[in-house]
Every structure is written in structure tokens, then in C-alpha cells.
Amino acid sequence: MAELRIESVMTRNPITVSGNTLLSETQAIMVTRGLRHLPVIEDGIVAGVVSDRDILLAQLAHEGLDNRDVLTVSDISTLSVFAVTPQSALADVADEMARQHIGSALVMEGDALLGIFTATDACRQLTRVLRSKS
Fold it and tell me: Which domain holds residue 53?
């Protein structure tokens, strides 16, 4: 069996947000689209990743404060991202995500964001493999 590459299982052209997007707007996008991770783009360049967990923790930390509705993605996003190339082996990427306890990998070609690979994508692929064996 040929080794699967991330490009064959990633979500292409992911929805993104900018650093100045309000958390409330970001959360609405995530809920509406059923997403847990959004790449953060500034001036056409990946600046980080924001997760539903980041938003939840920020909301808990700012509960009861008047400025909670003015928090933006740049206030809470993770600046370091796990980036891979489209040719990266699925097994290697999934192994590294599990090892580091991270929920997403950005698929990039140079500075260009091509897609995102998440734990949900990994579960979909696992389901395909298991069903093909039965």
C-alpha cells in the first residue's frame, strides 16, 4: 500500500480569520461551520492558529470583565504553528500531532497556506481505512 500524503486528506482552502477579528465573530464562524481550528492570516501570511479551546479559555479568564466583547484573535491565538508540506506522510504528521498533543497542522508550500489537517481529518481517514478492511 502506498504511503498516504497529507495533500490527499487535508481540508483544502480552509476558512481563515485575521488577528483583528473579534472572538465573538470567530466563535460564531466556528460554531456555524463546525470547526475547531482556524488559521490566522495577517497581510497574506500565516500569523498563528486559534482554536475553540483558546476562545473558551479566554472567555473564562475574562468572565465578568467589561472588555470581554472587544477581545480579538490576536489577543489569544497561538503564534507557533505546526506546519507541514503537502508531501508530508500522513503517518508522520499524525504521529507528531499525537506526540505534541496538538489538534491541527497547517499545510503550507513556502508561505502559502494550502490547507489544514486536523484530528477530525485523521478520524475520517481512520474510518476509511477500517471500513476498507472489512
Answer: 6-133
